[in-house]
TrEMBL record, chains A, B:
Signal peptide region: none
Domain Glycosyl hydrolase 94 catalytic, residue spans: 306-710
Protein's recorded name: Glycosyltransferase 36
Domain of life: Bacteria
Keywords from the named record: Glycosyltransferase, Transferase
Gene Ontology MF terms in the entry: carbohydrate binding; glycosyltransferase activity
């Protein structure tokens, strides 16, 4: 039975067939590894761009991480064969490649490690994977135990395929001095300047163990032979590994240990696997992690993870929700914010939204992100499509396509930072421009970003979309230079209103006034040009065609255009009611609220690339959780707390077999999408992308803290306004805020008609507590009327 | 026992384990397919760039074809499962993915088709693959026969994996109206201009059969299940395919036919597999190739192949050599020359050398290649690195790196064309320039190419190498602008001498005189600066360091620098003898003559990228057959016919088990390399790259015709000067030349002291026959002294 264990900090899966691609992920400052329950792995590290040290067995395309990653027998993975040397019977842990049905199987991904326990025919294999805090390496611990009554002779064979390293040069051999399989390669290139660029790369992949193997093999093909990976020739007929090397052949790290285990006896191995620049780096890593203090390594990693676990805790009647929000959600936020999704040129939109969540974890990071973004802004005010994190980085892929929404996120991130920290010094921080040596205050930078945004409009005053807004592949609405984004009109208005508040606080009435007028005028334009009768249109194409409207048979209603109409205040109560009804009828699915519906089944040349994606996947009508998070934000904004909670909750895979099987993932992260197109493709609806890179995490965290829990900062203090679901009788939160601790106890009370708030047993007037003192612990009691 | 059959036009391999990657290849004007004996496939077609319609199960890197292509269980292939429905026993033809040991196995690749016959437990599967002449499609014929005594109930299941088509959109379903599995996709892109560029692409892959299947499956994963490809879940326990589709899942064409076969009974299927733009194209192809006249399709393809089989036949004591030269060698030349190696921007060097061989097959192609090359020449005379074959083509990969040798090949190709055709009108053909509207004669173009080449020299007058010459990855000898190429000095001198002859024939004594002087001066410089004592250096680096010299511990002696010293006449007899000795001692291996030795084991920053390749692979000291062909040309040039023949012969895999196992290929083509580094890596020495794209084929063909057979054109007629090996007692050739037919009978006669030549029983004086008459058949008898 799949379940959260260890107070929610670890999950347990007991069936490798239930959701074969179900995975956990670990990372440190330099690398990430996603391991499936069955032993397949996707891992990458920064060198300085994302690279792999274990490869597929063919030349792989260089691209961003792809949704619904597909596994196959020869995919990279970490496998441990066990052969009974009397019977010849073979199984492998975790589950691949032999796929023998285990007597028992347990997969337990935790916050800072992953564990498996696999039992088969009286033998048990325990595996544990950890990462060091600050090196690129996997540390594996494996224990083989005889749980039967008779002595067993077994061969234990860790098999770490390294795959197709390079067409220029790849090979491998066992280095007995190091006690390691060393696989060497030269990263392929052709231009001479790349030689100098590549020279520092870690072109070695190695596997070392804390004891010398009895036999080794380094050629993948020699190991596999005719038997195939499920029954490798090298292990058939009682054979031992033949000591072969790989010479421009596909290498693998394969070690054989011959063990005689009395009843109850066990043997423990520690292995390290990863990339290195040269053999002296291999020796260094072996010294640190195989011969060094294992406990110290583990506690450093735990401390690193603990740093990211945030400043918030919830104790609600929904235990799965508690487990997720208290551990896994901040972990996901921290992953994004501390590693920048392992890229050197994050999309500006992602970079800033990832920083949104970091205000609750490490607000200095948010500050740095805001200032770095502003420093790459053009003097025109234009915010670039991507942010370069290193001097040698370049804008790649989607960052070469012009998008028009980035100013919005700069405002939202800056306001969130101010709300949480009240560090108003950031506004005065002097920041340069991309093409100029002069510096100006961040305040000026943000204001100029909005001024640029306000200028990029058509004759109606609606914002041009160019080749995309938040929606990357909506690239042909405005590529001829005329099409406009309805969503961006709303988001601009929202951002202008937000920034007007900051301007007012800074006593800059002139700018505030201009922004208020612009925001209001934009709302008028939205209502004049984009209201379709029961919902808002998503935009107007280059040829003047409204889309996302009732006249469309596909892409008829878009969620974002409704959510942000609520956020910016464009929708009055009547319109809001119609919109909600339309969303319920057309976008709601058992797996969350779809981004739009129906999914496109044919190219719309005036909408763009998203219409060519598979219907229900990604931006073509998936349950795209980022959009769902905006919707939840809008619902909290209009005080629809119950609906908002349902939207948030639907993003989480339930910790039970049925939902895990359908989603194909564990409840340890929010994926960027679940398949939508519920009416069009019911068989696949709900299936997870298994991509945990998503702006959703930050928004979700922020909504739980600031809306569900209801504790959010203002210039003067803290607002206390929880919006817990009406069926929760009671809920407790604990939150660190501006150096103080808030312990909040929210209760629903029958017969009560108005909300009552006590702080340290003193009732407060309204919902704002002013003058929060650092170091103090506030005990807050909120009593809410029980709903009918 | 592996052997040539059907008079050398087909090969027979009877063991799928002997050389698992051993393959044949078929092509037509638009596509190429390489099929291994075990059923794996690499195929591509032009649309307009090379594309695949069956993919690996992961996003594949876009690159040129790679040597030693690696196969793995989920690699693209064409497989036919057979299940005994009484016992459940399963096997698959050709051999993968089940890998059941067959009772008998026959793989027979022919000139225009490939066949397999696999027997297992009383059942026989006959397979045949053909291509149509001018469409992109595979036509498969499969027959299942009960060769036992009892009636058998079997399921016959063609399984054509389609693989990872696209991250944007991929899926598949069975279309009952078409009787076809239709797999759809959208080629991934991000920039809007690529949408318009991609719109015409064939994004469908389909599998259709001439009868409706009993059951189908389109999801690869549903088919495979937990069983794996060797024992797919969908075929376990008597199950039938479940009719599933693929929805953003990896698709495959899988058809199940349930057959009841009486003893001796058999059922025949015809299938078509390939890409299409839309379903109407699918319908069209089905109509043509499944419902149309199969005989007519076959004879069109055979006629196309026959067109390429050249104008030359040999009957020597070496029957394997005869089989190769009479069928497979011109076939390989024709493949290069008619398809341009399936690229839109061939390297100029390759393009011109491929055209060398085409003079014996279709000289109009050679003419066109020469004129097209000249038309892309710069007015400076510089010949570009690559030739664009279409207006929308671009220079890719290696064509973006500056090389300095291309003029040489323009001269050699033009002279070869003149020698064979005597079509001197080509010299007057008016050709434009890449940056100018004016036209000039080809004669001027070639002269100017040499004039440019003569100007790109250092202060010693040796030619600069920039970032490469013939040797692409020799990219750091001269990247600072100073290094020179010894080989190019020799090749320049050779080309200048060749062109001087043309100039003289055109009565342009002034140019001829200049070229003779330049060629002679270059030889002086070569001998002054590059002779190392026992051989010639390969060049001098940017820093003035000679390399390819006895002082080097790696890359000590390069073959090309010796071969071309002989060709250009730089080496006197003494030097030649020293060079040959050094080559024998240092470069000769049981698998041919290495390009240089010892292979580099570490980067030489003043030589370049080739030193980083795996030692003994490709340009790092392989038996690089193109270089070996130059060596053979040099040996014939200096009348070392026996040595030359040994060099040529070593390029051919022997049609016997031992050599096939070592080389890992069949004797059907010359690969670009066999692994060298015979002393450094004996285990892998001799292993074939299995890449049949190589300039070697043209040179080999030309040497056999013009040197071994010894029949070559001059301005006045034809030279008759065979150089057959001394241990051949007799040899006959038949050759079409300038519209006449030559039947040549060469005999070694004991006691004879001087060569004697009769033409139509009349002795001729010297070795030149003047005034060849079109339409006439010349019977030539050559009597050679038998050697001691």
């Amino acid at each position: 039975m799949p379940e959260f264990i260890d107070n929610g900090t670890r999950f347990r899966l007991t069936d490798p067939m239930l959701a074969p691609s179900a995975a956990g992920y670990l990372w440190n400052r330099r690398m990430m590894i996603q391991m499936t329950c069955r032993g397949f792995a996707v891992s990458q590290y920064m060198d300085p761009e994302p690279r792999k040290y274990a490869h597929v067995p063919t030349m792989a395309g260089q691209s961003f991480m792809q949704p619904e990653h597909r596994y196959f027998a020869h995919h990279p993975g970490r496998f441990f064969y066990v052969r009974d040397n009397q019977s010849g019977a073979l199984f492998s842990a975790p589950h691949e490649p032999v796929r023998a049905r285990p007597d028992s199987f347990v997969f337990e991904p935790g916050l800072s490690d992953m564990r498996w326990t696999v039992e088969k025919d009286g033998l048990r294999v325990d595996l544990c994977l950890e990462l060091p805090e600050d090196d690129v390496a996997e540390i594996w611990t494996a224990t083989v135990t005889n749980i039967g009554d008779d002595t067993r002779d077994v061969s234990f064979v860790p098999y770490f395929p390294v795959g197709y390293m390079s067409w220029m040069n790849m090979g491998g051999h066992f280095d007995a001095d190091l006690g390691a399989v060393i696989c060497t390669s030269v990263t392929p290139y052709q231009a001479v300047e790349d030689y100098f660029r590549n020279r520092h790369l870690k072109d070695i992949t190695f596997l070392a163990a804390d004891r010398l193997p009895d036999h080794v093999e380094v050629s993948q093909q020699a190991f596999e032979g005719e038997g195939g990976l499920a029954d490798p020739s090298a292990l058939q007929g009682g054979r031992n590994l033949a000591g072969g090397d790989a010479a421009y052949e596909i290498p693998a790290g394969i070690l054989q240990y011959d063990l005689s285990l009395p009843a109850g006896g066990s043997e423990r191995f520690r292995l390290i696997f990863g990339p290195a620049h040269d053999t002296s780096e291999v020796a260094l890593l072996i010294g640190k992690y195989l011969r060094g203090d294992a406990e110290a390594v583990q506690s450093a990693t735990r401390a690193y993870m603990a740093e990211g676990l945030g400043s918030f805790e919830i104790e609600s009647p929904d235990t799965a929700f508690n487990a997720f929000v208290n551990h896994w959600l901040p972990r996901q936020v921290f992953y994004h914010g501390d590693t920048n999704r392992l890229t050197t040129d994050p999309q500006t939109r992602n970079y800033l939204q990832d920083a949104l969540g970091m205000v609750f974890i490490r607000p200095d990071t948010t500050r740095e992100v805001i200032l770095r973004t502003a420093s790459q802004q053009s003097v025109s005010g234009k915010v670039p499509d991507g942010i370069l994190l290193r001097p040698d980085a370049t804008l790649k892929y989607i960052n070469q396509i012009p998008h028009t929404d980035h100013a919005v996120w700069l405002v939202i991130a800056t306001c969130a930072y101010l709300d949480e920290t009240n560090d108003r010094s950031i506004l005065a921080a002097q920041v340069g421009w991309s093409e100029s040596d002069r510096t100006d205050s961040l305040y000026d930078h943000v204001t100029r970003a909005l001024s640029f945004l306000a200028g990029e409009v058509d004759e109606r005053g609606l914002p041009l979309i160019a080749q995309g807004d938040w929606n990357d592949p909506m690239n042909m609405v405005g590529y001829k230079g005329k099409g406009v984004s309805g969503w961006l009109a709303e988001a601009s208005s929202y951002a202008m209103s937000l920034w007007a508040e900051v301007c007012e606080a800074e006593a800059d009435q002139k700018t505030a006034g201009w922004l208020r007028r612009e925001a209001g005028a934009m709302i008028e334009r939205i209502n004049a040009h984009l209201w379709d009768g029961d919902w808002y249109a998503r935009g107007i194409t280059d040829d003047g065609q409204h889309f996302g409207v009732s006249a469309d048979d596909e892409g008829r209603i878009y969620l974002n255009a409704q959510s942000w109409a609520m956020l910016c205040g464009a929708a009055d109560e009547d319109r809001q009611a119609r919109m909600l009804l339309a969303i319920d009828e057309q976008l709601d699915t058992p797996y969350g609220v779809a981004m739009f519906a129906p999914a496109y089944t044919r190219m719309r040349e005036d909408v763009g690339r998203l219409t060519q994606k598979w219907p229900g996947s990604a931006e073509n009508g998936a349950v795209y959780n980022h959009a769902a998070a905006f919707y939840a934000a809008a619902l909290y904004h209009v005080e629809e707390g119950d609906r908002a909670y349902r939207v948030l909750r639907a993003m989480l895979t339930e910790p039970e077999a049925g939902d895990i099987a359908i989603r194909g993932q564990l409840p340890l992260y929010i994926p960027n999408y679940y398949r939508g197109a519920w009416h069009q493709h019911p068989r696949t609806a709900g299936r997870s992308s298994n991509l945990f890179n998503t702006g959703t995490a930050s928004w979700f965290y922020r909504l739980v803290i600031e809306q569900l829990c209801g504790l959010r900062g203002t210039r003067d203090g803290v607002v206390i306004a929880p919006q817990i679901p009406s069926d929760w009788d009671r809920c407790r939160f604990r939150r660190t805020f501006r150096g103080a601790i808030f312990e909040i106890d929210v209760e629903r009370v029958r017969g009560l008609t108005d909300r009552e708030i006590d702080v340290d047993q003193e009732p407060i007037d309204g919902d704002v507590l002013r003058h929060v003192e650092r170091g103090r612990t506030y005990k807050v009691r909120v009593r809410l009327p029980a709903r009918a």
